[in-house]
Structures are given as C-alpha cells and as structure tokens.
Design goal:
The protein has 390 residues and is of the alpha+beta class. Helix 1 packs parallel to helix 6, helix 1 runs parallel beside helix 9 and helix 9 packs antiparallel against helix 11. The chain binds 8-demethyl-8-dimethylamino-flavin-adenine-dinucleotide and P-hydroxybenzoic acid. 8-demethyl-8-dimethylamino-flavin-adenine-dinucleotide binds next to helix 1 and helix 9.
Length: 390
Amino acid sequence: MRTQVGIVGAGPAGLLLSHLLHLNGIESVVLEARSRGYVEARIRAGVLEQPVEKLLNDSGVGARMRELGLPHEGVNLRTGGRDHRIDLKALTGKGTMVYSQHLIVQDLIAARLAAGGDVRFEASGIGLRDVRTDAPYIVYEQDGKQHRLDCAVIAGCDGFHGISRDTIPASVRQSFDREYPFGWLGILADVAPSSHEVVYASHDRGFALLSMRSPSVSRLYLQCEPDEDISKWSDDRIWEELSTRLARDGFTLQAGPITQKGVTQMRSFVVEPMQYGKLFLVGDAAHIVPPTGAKGLNLAAADVAVLTRALTAWFRTGATDLLESYGETCLRRVWKAQRFSWWMTSLLHRFSSHTPFERRVQQAELDGLFGSVAASTALAENYVGLPLIL
Ligand code: RFL
Ligand code: PHB
C-alpha cells in the first residue's frame, strides 16, 4: 500500500492534517492505535484561539462549532475575592471559542470519512522505517496481520506518549523539560456553568479554574499534588474545595453530578529538531504545555498549518525551502506559547517552595496586571492567539 503522507495518530493534529492535505489535493492515510469510539470520547481541551477557530471554519469543518460553540469575549482572573476581567475583545478585537476537543475530533473524522479518507483505527505495533531516505515506510499490525505503508513523508502526530519522537536518534535530539510540583484534578459536571466566562483563580490553598463545555455542562479544575490519589476526593470534597478557592462576593458555585474526574501532571516540554529526514513531528508529539494558557491544541493546529503549506508547495512544485524550515517556523510560535503558558502557570499557582517574599512578589505581579492596560493587553494578545504562521 502506498500514499503520499503517512500520518501516525488520529488526534486533532493528525486528523486536521489529513483534512487540510485533502483540500490541497494530497492523499494521506491516518493510522491510530485506539478505537474510533475511544478517540471520539476523549475529553481534553476546550478553548480555541481565534486563528484556530477561523482555520476550522475556513476549511469547512466549523458547522457544529458555530452551532454549539460558546464565543467568549473576556476571561476573569480572580484573587483575594475580587475579579479582574480581561476584556479580550476590547483589547485585541478578538475573542476565543469554547468548544470541546472531542467534538472537533468527531467533526474531523466525519469530514474525512465523507470525503472517502482513509483513517485506520486499532493499528498496533507501529514502527517508522528508513525515515532518512526518500522511501520511508510505516509497519503496523491490524486484524492480526502485518502491513506496510510506503509514503513520501511521515507525520508523527501521535501525542506525547507516541513512538514517532523516539525514531529521531538520541544523538540528534535535544529535549527541554520542566515538571511542575503540582497537577490538576479536573472534573466534568452536569450543571450549568456558574459563570458565563472562564475564571482563573489564585488562592492561598491553590489554583482553581472554572470553565464550561455547554450551557448545561461545567468543566472545573483544582491544583493538587502531581501524584494525587483521586480516590481521596469525594464529590462533596471537590465541590467544597472549588467553592473555597473560587469564592467572591456575590458568587455562588453551583454543584451538580460529577460525570468524570482525573488528574493531569503539569509539564512543559519541547523536542528539537521537529524534523528528521522525511519525518515531521506535529503537536503534542513535539511539545507539551501546562494547560493554564489553554495552548496545547492550538499549537498542534498551528504546526498543521505550517506543515500543510510546506507539503502543498513541495508536492506541487518540488520546492523544498518551506519543508526544510518547518521545524524552525513552528518553534518560533511554540516557544512563545511555552513562555506564555509557563508565565500563566507561575503567576496563578501556589508553590510550596515559595518563601513569604516570593509569594508577595507573585501577588504584586497579579496586582500589577490588574492595574495596567499594557500588561492586560499582552496577556490578551497571547490568549486569543498569535497568527498561526509567524
Ligand atoms: P493527541 O490528542 O494526544 O493525539 C495523539 C493520537 O495519537 C495516538 N497514538 C498512536 N497511534 C498509533 N500508534 C501509536 N504508537 C500511538 N501513540 C499514540 C493517540 O491514541 C491519539 O489519538 O495529540 P495531538 O493531536 O497533538 O493534540 C494535542 C492536544 O490533544 C493537546 O495539546 C490538548 O488536549 C492540550 N489541552 C488543551 N489545549 C488547548 O489548546 N486548550 C485547552 O483548553 C486545553 N486544555 C489540554 C487541556 C490537555 C489536558 N490534558 C488532559 C492533558 C486540558 C487538559 C486537562
Ligand atoms: C478547559 O475548558 O478545559 C480549559 C480552559 C482553560 C484552560 C485550560 C482548560 O486554561
């Protein structure tokens, strides 16, 4: 079997790449380890930057997002029982779109299948071969049989725990890594969001975040230990802690049935280079950000935009310049998002290692943000999203 682009992973990165390549007349095959049902139900990100929302709309997969998505014109930073609203629209002319990642995955799978696209689920034992040559191929197992997929290039879209990144020899790879001394306990609850905008709360007991998925579904997070034992968190304890950390005069947190809970470790990670021969790393396979800035999915979409442009030029004209500069172009945006995510994380979380002096400095930084249009604008510009290709 032969295709132009072999794509490993049917997360948002792999599916969006396959979709955009198709619109540019380029064939691809997507190989995914999990089942379709699994990837379509995996609850993750929810906040889309304006350029990513536009990319989905412009490429014809935005119909359900326009119907069900929640456009936001501001976000709130809450501390000391007070809110500071960052008016995204007034400061940047743009906003964000709250729309579940798993719905984007469903929309993209539907679009690929409707267009006759080739997405193969439950493909195991994937291996990438001869990626430094002009004839790379992918081996995998499906339905108890060994398969080989020959391709012109391979896109490693298999997330942080995938195998693509390790195909680049350790002698060539450099990793930049930071683990934070906390995690996020996240819940999904069948209750109307207690705020119509996202609230980021900095509290002495730790960070909390109020977000949403729909007018009747809330998504909330609590800073916790990185290895937090979730069995110690009854639903009542979670709601009580969220209420304490999100407290503000005139605000009541509405509790409701919790339908999902989980703990996520917080880390920043980048691998360089993002390209090795005919292998291109895309999205979480190449970089992870702590979710505080809501950047992960958006960065994956930006990588896809850069790679689509480069592959389209190459397949049409043989021009290699955009392909050769793929990693460098992506990394300019990746590092800006890394800085922003690290900064938001450092600003809003409680660090047990902080001295009273450092805690005061942290509070002064938040206070400074509240009092400064310039500082609020800098936050807003990053939050609504830098251009996809810098
Ligand atoms: P994914 O989504 O991890 O998809 C990778 C796919 O590859 C498959 N795979 C393999 N397939 C074949 N063979 C193998 N050996 C394979 N190994 C893995 C996997 O099954 C999967 O289907 O990576 P991708 O496509 O790069 O997308 C990245 C995003 O998923 C991620 O960055 C975001 O979810 C991060 N994130 C957020 N990003 C935002 O932009 N806004 C947010 O509000 C936001 N909130 C979040 C988040 C991530 C979170 N968690 C759980 C990490 C909130 C949380 C709690
Ligand atoms: C979410 O809705 O899941 C969400 C919102 C904002 C973030 C991270 C996650 O910064």
